[in-house]
Amino acid sequence: MNKIRTQNIFWILTGCLTLLFISKSTSQISVSNLLQYQLGNLPGASPSDRTSLYNQLNINYLYENIRIGGRIEYFNVDNRDQQYSNFQQKFIQYQNENFEIRLGNFYEILGKGLLLRTYEIPGVIYEETGSRQRYGFYKDIEGILLRYATDHLYVKLLYGNPLDLLQPPARTRNQRRPSIVQGGEINFNFSPLISPGFLYLRSEQNNTVNEFAGISFNGNLPIGMQYYLEYVQDTKMQDQYFIFGSTGRHAFYGSLSQSFNWANFSIELKDYHEFSLNFNDPPSLVREQPRTLLNRGTHAIQPQDERGYQLEGIFNIGGLNTITANHSHAENKFADRKFIFQEYYVDLNYYITDRTLGKAFIDWAEDEVINALARWTMGVLVEQELIKYWSLITDLQTQQFKRAYEFSPQFNHSVKNHLLDLTITKAPNLAFGINLEAAQDPLESNTLNALDKTNYKYWMGFNFNYLYSQNHSITFFYGERRGGTACSGGICYEVQPFNGFELRLNSIF
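Below the sequence we write its predicted structure tokens.
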């Protein structure tokens, strides 16, 4: 099997290179490659010196209005059952000023993602817990996409099989792409005040058919405000329209924003019920935090039943200095029981001097869904220019929250997390850092039954990044890396802990 796949890859690469040499001068070919080598394993796992290699190769060929491309993923490890080498994506696309048709793999979104959202988080390599296989973190559709656009009309139609990214590459195509979706949207743009749109999607899996339809509005109000409204529901809800709350299969999202010279304000609303469709990703309405401890504790939306809002204001206090204030609130319901999430966040970005940038934040939150109560998180980051081109970045964060067990109160405990990150940079291409984390958490140290609340667990890792040129970079990691949730672009995923050495090469040709 691997031999056959390798031969296919050889002929595909040979064909692409041949096109490069025989095509006209107006053609373009681009190649990007991501390679990751690891010598290590999960902390405490055997063997501790497990060796693995992951590689992702992307090839795109463009000639006038035609684009052809593909992606090859390869994973090699000592366990043969975990190895694979697959041509994961392939497509051909024609596009002119108004029209586009694409056959093969593509990413697409309908509206704001209530019905359908596919995506890729570039650079993220996901490790599936059960199989221990690593692969690119993306959710695409394999099928056909049609798009037509003018100044006043936008039409999008699609048909295909969405990828279930939690199914690793060693699984069959039917396991990885179990459903069929077809539908699209149409948007009209006749006035800046209001632009209506209509959405439709039909899905089929295991002989079960579902149909959804919806409507959207967006525009600019005369006072300068921008707004967006979208509502979709199951078409089986006959004679019932615009249902809210914990009844009827529906999803609603709305936003309103206003900009001034001195500040930007926004408010967002959500109401989701029975809307976990496996190929959709509704807006979370939770601030995505760049700081590690806050990012790791990001609230994950529950489209089966969640409603709430988010408020945010960004204030200019002179120069490039800003204050950001954010508040998020959500309510979930499972088995007639309500769970509350709420978060209050404030940060300050301030240039203390021309050579010193200071950042500080404070955050209070609680998320009953994951049993994180009364969570306080604070942090300070200082970027200090040392000498020409050289800077020192110091990032210090601390966090404390409680876990309470309703039926086993004897296991109630508090959790403390601390992080220190020191990074020396040389502009524009060099960075070296050390990361230290400590946690007083019985679940991390496996001491919950003993209730040893003073037992700390520690992680230490070293990072080195070198940008060889604008198109080539190399990254080293050595040490122990803490696992947990990571969020990027509104998408959250689990990162496996790791202890050992890691090398990553990024190249664009």
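Residues 96-243 form one domain.
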